[in-house]
From TrEMBL:
<dbReference type="InterPro" id="IPR022419">
    <property type="entry name" value="Porphobilin_deaminase_cofac_BS"/>
</dbReference>
<dbReference type="Pfam" id="PF03900">
    <property type="entry name" value="Porphobil_deamC"/>
</dbReference>
<keyword id="KW-0808">Transferase</keyword>
<feature type="modified residue" description="S-(dipyrrolylmethanemethyl)cysteine">
    <location>
        <position position="239"/>
    </location>
</feature>
<dbReference type="InterPro" id="IPR036803">
    <property type="entry name" value="Porphobilinogen_deaminase_C_sf"/>
</dbReference>
<dbReference type="InterPro" id="IPR022418">
    <property type="entry name" value="Porphobilinogen_deaminase_C"/>
</dbReference>
<feature type="domain" description="Porphobilinogen deaminase N-terminal">
    <location>
        <begin position="7"/>
        <end position="209"/>
    </location>
</feature>
<comment type="subunit">
    <text>Monomer.</text>
</comment>
<dbReference type="Pfam" id="PF01379">
    <property type="entry name" value="Porphobil_deam"/>
</dbReference>
<comment type="similarity">
    <text>Belongs to the HMBS family.</text>
</comment>
<protein>
    <recommendedName>
        <fullName>Porphobilinogen deaminase</fullName>
        <ecNumber>2.5.1.61</ecNumber>
    </recommendedName>
</protein>
<dbReference type="InterPro" id="IPR000860">
    <property type="entry name" value="HemC"/>
</dbReference>
<dbReference type="InterPro" id="IPR022417">
    <property type="entry name" value="Porphobilin_deaminase_N"/>
</dbReference>
<comment type="function">
    <text>Tetrapolymerization of the monopyrrole PBG into the hydroxymethylbilane pre-uroporphyrinogen in several discrete steps.</text>
</comment>
<keyword id="KW-0627">Porphyrin biosynthesis</keyword>
<feature type="domain" description="Porphobilinogen deaminase C-terminal">
    <location>
        <begin position="224"/>
        <end position="301"/>
    </location>
</feature>
Length: 311
């Protein structure tokens, strides 16, 4: 037990947010600390507008404000929702073991993507998903989609859409992974940088809490997220940009035949209408995660990524 009293964890009110914050609370309790959830309503929860309209960071600003003013001690974010710029006075003290980073299709009739005929309606608002789905050239009708996961899945069950594309991790967290009809290999659809990862944040000057939370950190998960977000930052793009990235820790053999961990990173950008797409990949030391991301972004830019994203 710590002498500091109950650790207050700020969370959005959605089932997904409460579940993932609840996991962090449970991990803290498991480690012998007192912790509780404090639900905070964000502008993103109140608006049905596409995220590109209401702005990057819409889900996280209110929670960070509560952290700054001391209403809460810890914020648990979906890492992919965080702007790439670091927040003054706050520290990401832990990246817990990451969930599946892949995007998932939930289609009527249990169909996979290749079974959807041209003209099928597929709901998703993320420009990254729109662009990559269009680039596949399947003649799909991409429709805007917002709201919590329950609302999104309801559009398929209710017959309004033939399919939706969402993050598989979100469905796993709310116990609805059974509804996934296809988990997209990144070769088909590159996930959002940091998808499936959590960022556990606290005030930088709360040294005691920084070290308590550090016990929840998973180094490989942090390395993959650092690499992916480094691509995004170097492209000067935000979480609503048509940028996909996935990093994985893979085993390889060094010059002496010893098994060593390396970081494999793939990333790409696509034009919203699918008319153009650029992808690249790199493999290197895990300790160079951020540099590898920057190098990959530089290659993408050299090959015209800025122009592709503008189209
Ligand atoms: N943009 C919304 C969002 N932010 C985090 C998740 C859940 C998955 C995750 O933690 O990456 C989702 C839903 C989705 O993209 O389908």
């Amino acid at each position: 037990m710590t002498g500091r009293g109950t650790i207050r964890i700020g969370t959005r009110g959605s089932l997904l947010a409460r579940t993932q914050s609840g996991d962090v609370r449970d991990a803290l309790i498991e480690a012998g600390h007192d912790a509780e959830l404090v639900v905070i309503t964000t502008a993103g929860d109140l608006s049905a507008e596409p995220v590109e309209k209401i702005g990057v960071g819409v889900f996280t600003t209110a929670i960070r404000a509560a952290l700054h003013n001391g209403e809460i001690d810890v914020a648990v974010h979906s890492y992919k929702d965080l702007p790439t710029a670091p927040e003054e006075g706050l520290t990401i003290a832990a990246v817990p073991p990451r969930a599946d980073s892949r995007d998932a299709l939930v289609a009527a009739g249990g169909r996979v993507l290749g079974e959807l005929p041209p003209g099928s309606t597929v709901g998703t608002s993320a420009p990254r998903r729109v662009a990559q789905l269009n680039a596949l050239g399947l003649g799909l009708e991409i429709r805007p989609l917002r709201g919590n996961l329950d609302t999104r899945l309801g559009k398929v069950a209710g017959g309004e859409l033939d399919a939706v594309v969402v993050a598989r991790a979100g469905l796993v967290r709310i116990g609805r992974e059974d509804e996934v009809t296809e988990a997209f290999d990144p070769v088909v659809l590159l996930p959002a940088p940091a998808q499936g990862a959590l960022a556990v944040e606290c005030r930088s000057d709360d040294a005691e809490l920084v070290s308590i939370l550090a016990e929840l950190d998973d180094a490989p998960s942090r390395a993959t997220v650092d690499a992916e977000r480094s691509v995004l930052a170097a492209l000067e793009a935000g979480c609503t940009a048509p940028v996909g990235a996935i990093a994985e820790v893979v085993e390889s053999l060094d010059d002496d035949g010893r098994v060593v961990d390396e970081l494999s990173l793939r990333a790409g950008v696509a034009a919203l209408d699918g008319s153009d797409e650029i992808r690249a990949s790199v493999v290197g030391p895990v300790a160079r995660a951020v540099e590898l991301g920057r190098e990959l972004a530089a290659e993408l830019l050299e090959r015209g990524a800025a122009e592709v994203m503008r189209d």
